[in-house]
Design brief:
The chain is mainly α. The chain has 3 helices and no strands.
Length: 67
Amino acid sequence: MKDIKGMTIFELKEYANSLSNEEFEKFEDEVDLQFFDSDLDPIQLLNAARLYDYLQYKKKGDITIEI
């Protein structure tokens, strides 16, 4: 895993979105984002389409989005 401490929020989002589901799950478990100025939840680093893919993975394909 890359050292993320020197990354900007934009770079961190790009990096998070490049990870596979398995890699992102490990990232979510291991990375402490407290060193950033804002309160970041690792899930906030995924864009909408990537977030949907990741949630599908986490829920083993059982996800419904309601608008």
